[in-house]
Amino acid sequence: MDKIGLGNYFDAVCDGNEITHSKPDPEVFLKAAGKIGLAVSECLVVEDACAGISAASAGGFDSAGLGDAAKDKNVTWALNTFGDLKNIVK
After folding, report:
1. φ, ψ of residue 18 in degrees (nearest 5)
2. Is Transferase among the key words of this record (predicted)?
3. Looking at residue 34, which CATH number applies to its domain?
4. Bridge-partner residues for 78, per DSSP?
């Protein structure tokens, strides 16, 4: 994120280099929540892939899905556009 000038917009980053299990395992989301000290109930997973929605659901996270992920049976909120997030994020 720092290389592309986005580092200051994130409190923490968690990626595949820090986890053992890939999505649909919730490990990446649980680790990210832990890094920023938030409970699962305080987080929202935004995804464009069904595997990510499955991971969010398995970890107990609310989720917002775009594209194919918006059609997933486990998605909390289906989004038509990324801009729709403003209607659910407080």
Report:
1. -110, 5
2. no
3. 3.40.50.1000
4. 65
